[in-house]
Specification:
By secondary structure, this protein is α/β, with parallel strands linked by helices. It has a single domain, classed as TIM Barrel (Alpha-Beta Barrel), CATH 3.20.20.210. The longest helix is centred in the middle third of the chain and has 23 residues, at 170-192. The strands form two sheets. The protein has a seven-stranded parallel β-sheet with strand order 1-9-8-7-6-5-4. Strands 2-3 form a two-stranded antiparallel ribbon. It has helices spanning 5-14, 29-34, 46-60, 104-107, 120-136, 149-157, 159-168, 170-192, 213-235, 251-254, 270-277, 289-294, 298-312, 330-343, and strands at residues 23-24, 84-87, 90-94, 143-147, 198-202, 239-243, 261-264, 282-287, 316-320.
Length: 346
């Protein structure tokens, strides 16, 4: 008997009986493109965004929505002095930083996300979209999404400056990361309290391509553990964590965060990641978004999917290694469904 994507995701999280491996086409802007929209027409329109992601998710066959059609950098647009540049058909670019001077880390305040008048861009680009979709879409778990702690600290301070602070002024870096954690948590809780059923944190700056295990443990791990424990206890929801790039150097502490699922990039060996994390976390990966998912063809997607399925085992989700590129053909995403139906039926 057919089950809904929500039922499949819940079965995965709760250790229940699955019909097949779930799939997660980490989608955002590609949904708008496939459904015939430019990003400028979707970026700040919750009703259009909900319509687009609902139609796209059913057309593509995904089980997990993740970020949906949100403008991920809109959470910075209400911070005084932060310049965010909008483009017609791509995500916004963050041009300046809130903690430009060391003393800003202690002095500058954040808005309260529950006070919509104080943060209109956050609600237009992010919270309004996730909560609107959660109120309408019953066949999927709608996750509240935000850039995670370490990445947000990078946006606030400037990634290069923050990494230099870690090396030369670690106490300053600790303050910046702590404040970033509080900021992220306030946004996540605002969405979860209004009906979102999962927590998705994306942390590209915490990549093993940029930091080592000791840095992850010292500056990131405790914050993630606290946030994810809070989402479970306060809202009863699971947390998903995505980290870009080489993740083997930070895989062990990631498995200790309390995340139910760890999404990792294409340059990692799933078997090696599984060995590092053990069986306490669901692995999601790790199709090459560029060479396979975007520029490949359905057969190439199926072949790459089989390699992941064989290496990752049952406690896994077939997913793109990072966000699906904007111009990906829908047929390549649908091929992920073909692959699990052929190679990962349970």
């Amino acid at each position: 008997m057919a089950i809904t994507p929500k039922e499949r995701e819940l079965a995965m999280l709760e250790g229940g009986k699955l019909d097949r491996m779930p799939i997660w086409q980490i989608n955002g802007i590609v949904a708008a493109k496939v459904m015939g929209y430019e990003w400028k027409d979707v970026r700040f329109d919750a009703k259009v965004s909900s319509k687009v992601i609902s139609e796209f998710s059913k057309k593509s066959g995904t089980d997990i929505l993740g970020q949906g059609c949100v403008e991920p950098n809109s959470y910075l647009m209400d911070l005084p002095g932060v310049e965010v540049k909008l483009t017609d058909d791509n995500y916004a670019n963050v041009m300046t930083h809130y903690f430009s001077e060391p003393e800003d880390i202690d002095k500058k305040e954040f808005f309260d996300p529950t006070k919509k008048k104080d943060c209109p861009w956050l609600w237009k680009g992010l919270l309004g979209k996730t909560t609107d979709l959660a109120s309408k879409e019953k066949d999927f778990i709608i996750q509240q999404v935000c850039w995670s702690v370490f990445t947000t600290a990078g946006f606030l301070r400037n990634p290069e400056t923050m990494l230099m602070d870690i090396a030369t002024e670690p106490e300053l870096a600790h303050k910046a990361v702590k404040r970033a954690a509080e900021f992220v948590d306030s946004i996540m809780c605002a969405g979860l309290s209004e009906g979102c059923g999962g927590a998705y944190l994306a942390d590209p700056v915490a990549s093993g391509s940029l930091i080592d295990e000791a840095t992850f443990r010292a500056f990131n791990l405790d914050h993630l553990k606290r946030l994810m424990k809070g989402y479970k206890s306060k809202f009863g929801v699971a947390s998903y964590l995505h980290v870009c790039g080489e993740t083997a150097p930070v895989a062990k502490p990631i498995s200790e965060t309390g995340a139910a699922l760890f999404s990792f990039d294409f340059m990692n060996d799933p078997a090696a990641i599984r060995k590092l994390t053990g069986d306490k976390i669901i692995l999601a990966g790790n199709l090459n978004p560029m060479d396979v998912v975007w520029q490949g063809n359905p057969q190439k997607v199926i072949d790459a999917s089989k390699k992941f399925i064989d290496a990752a085992g049952k406690k896994a989700v077939l997913a793109t290694g990072c966000e699906t590129p904007r111009d990906t053909p829908i047929e390549n995403l649908q091929a992920m469904v073909t692959a699990v139906e052929k190679y990962a039926k349970y």
